[in-house]
Predict the structure.
Amino acid sequence: MSESSFEPVQRLTRDLATAARTLSDDEARYLVDAYYQMQDDRKRAHNQVRAMDAEPHATLAWFAAQSETLENQIKRALDIYTDAHPIGTWLKGVYGIGPVIAAGLLAHIDITRAPTAGHIWRYAGLDPTSKWEKGTKRPWNAALKTLCWKAGQSFMKFSNHDDCFYGHLYRERKAYEQERNDAGGNAAAAARILETKKFRADTDAIKHLQAGHLPPAQIDARARRYAVKIFLSHLHGYWYEQHFGKPAPVPFPISHLGHAHMIAPPMAEPRHVHD
């Protein structure tokens, strides 16, 4: 059977594209999950094809092309879904946030149940005081936590771009975390990790921990989480004011603990970046 005999994936018609504006949150969540599952499957298939000694069969090449086409169609539908949401344009104006991550955030977060940014942090698994005790229900949304991880990866990836505001926050925070780590500021945390987790004796991680430092991967993760939390705070502030018609409450550390430093959000311009 020749490659030309295969039927192409049907593209979104104008009517279907219009219908994407009325996707429910449940449907949008499904499409976001489907997009990332397809993306993972396509990458896995590409890796297998590249590992072959012989020229890949036309069928495999066709399958890879079809998968990528379907991914792009889902992204287009989610782009339209986010355009129809009053917060969607703001989200996609953030450098590093494309239509898929934007759609996932819109579909998972209910602003009427988030009086403060802290409620979103906790729901996204970004509150360090929130623990998942054995035998209890997970206290955060796993899909939203994954989306926030992807947002952090995107900010890190684009951190060298002049317009990537949250990427710059990531780099600044990483420098701060590294300096603090080198000065021994994480010695107690390193000791706790050694007490509660097991490591092979020949790993780099245990060498850092035994020296009273967190491993580089943990320093980087801390910096990414910091950038994402600031981003979610800005999202909450903008969304809250749009929905309720009044400014969002001042964050607890500033209003009650005397902290004076609050990072102002950037003026976002529409900019589509791949998820």
The mean pLDDT is 87. Residues 150 and 183 are 30 Å apart (CA to CA). The two ends are 35 Å apart (CA to CA). The first helix runs from residue 14 to 19.
